[in-house]
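An example makes the point: we let one protein speak, the chain in one-letter code, the fold tokenised, and here it is:
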Amino acid sequence: MIRFLKNFPALFIQEIKTIVIADLHVGIEYELYKSGIRIPSQVAEMKKNIFDLIKKTKAKRLVILGDLKHDVPGISYQEMKEIPGLMKDLSQKIKVDVCLGNHDTYIKKLSPEEIKIHGSEGFKIERFGFIHGHAWPSKELLSCDCLITGHTHPVIQFTDKFGYRIIEPVWIKNKIDKEKIKQRYKVETTGKMEFIIMPAFNRLLGGTPVNVKRNNDELLGPLLKNNFVDMNESEIYLLDGTYLGKLKNLVD
């Protein structure tokens, strides 16, 4: 059973006692600072939230689906200062797996040996597959019943009659087209191939409004760009659990 953790951009898989989060982007505050915007570091708040979720769920494992850090291709002073301490504290509390994202240069050097670092093609735990989303998943993941990804930072855009717009992070649930997967990977069978796109864990991040019309080549990651997922049929949920319906009925 997969459960979205109410009012948090995190999910819990009861079967493997695992919390999953994505897109922490530690160091984004430094980029904002260079643009003249001063915002306190979010690391302490994110760590507190993770510890609270561990206590609430009694999880034994934490999966971070990439983009742990923000600066790319380099590394900022803030990242060098904060990531080692964050990863050490997490590793002392729970078993941690990290899937490398497109921002995650130098993560191995910044993390203690106890942290398991997986490549960008993803990894699996029993029947669940985990990827960041910027690269094709490995063939090993095709047997999974559910594939969970980050990278997209999905949000929904609400517009009132006066044109005022707000955005809210959302969960996206769908299925991967198994026939297209079979053709690309030259395999005869796959798992159920359910597909979940996670909202970003760092609330400073913007996002991609999924209900604004766009071409496939504007979407993030090869699975979406190549139409392996019919986004129109996606089920959309707010962080408080509100089901908004299918995306095809929400597009502006």
In short: Helices lie at 28-34, 43-57, 77-93, 107-110, 178-185, 222-225. Residues 77-93 form the longest helix (17 residues). The chain has one domain: 2-249.
